[in-house]
Amino acid sequence: MAAQPPHLEAKPRLNAKTLFVVGAINLIDSINMNMLLPYVDKMVSAYLDVSPQSPEVATTAALLIGVYSLLEVIVSPFWGMLADMIGRRPCLLIGLAGSVIAPILLGFSKNIIMAFAARALDGFFCGNMVVTKTYLGELVDEKSEARGFSLLAFCFSLGLILGPAMGGQLVYPASWAPNIFAETIFDEYPFLLPNLIFAIFAAISWCIAAFCIEETLPKSQRCKCRKVFRRQGTRPQTLQRAMSGPMHEKDSGVDTSADPGSARGCYPLPTIQVIIMYCGLTGRVMAQDQLMAWLVSYDRSVGGFELSPRAISIIQNVGAAGVMLSQMTLYPVLTKKIGFLNTLVVGFVLSSLAYGLFPLYGLLANPEYGFGAAAIGERWS
Asked: Are residues 135 and 28 in the same domain?
């Protein structure tokens, strides 16, 4: 019996289990970016055997955090091409499997080289985030598109809370629960517990994905993709669909008759502008979060607050809760009244003002200027 044409093949439908898997993958990526922040200086200083205030610690910790995102960016085109060749489902499962293995390796690391290798491996497997967005885009229709993609934003915001909470509250378990963890493997590896729990969540997500998610790319189109890559050298359609803005061609305003292999056909100018802007904003936010974590972890003798990882995680959770609250209440109102662009400008200006006050925050650690902030920090440490 002849195979059905691609446009007649049954399309998988969006359901609760599929939404859970897609949301879990986005949540895993968000947790990965934030879980290390509360304790990265302690980990690096322990591996390098130097003071946490050492400039070497700050430089190495920044690289340890950044190597994850660097690998994620570098391998995204690879995951896009692979998804076009073998399908979306295998790539999602491979990426989730990597998210199970890499955190465990980080938890068992004994030196800085092992830590870098684990973070790089984690970034490599989470590079398939582009596949996740494409997979969801191929499942949704005009009615379910808003629900599907709003879930991604919610899961990312949730990761801003769960990541620091897991990283800050669960490290050094032998010190806060000696009756349970003293003289165990968690005493020898103080950073294992949060990474192990994170790996268990990823493993559960993998099991659900293995039984529940369906393939969205027909085999006939996969064969065509192989020929395209071998003979024409065009860009992968996964990247094209993930980066070309609206999911529905009739609403996108993009000339779909353009050569799909050209840069213009894959990445319209407005899309490129949004990508550049988003990269800049994301980089600045990550730098701001890291600066805050280091500022409050430094000793008071050098202008810090001398807070523990558990206290740092609480501060980051408060900030993440503010992000979620503003997304649900403030920004919807602003976008309706002044538009998306003006809302972006207002948010950028306000966050820049908060960022510019960073040099003054250190004064709060001084009892002479801190109005009790130092005492609060001492109680949290």
From this structure: yes
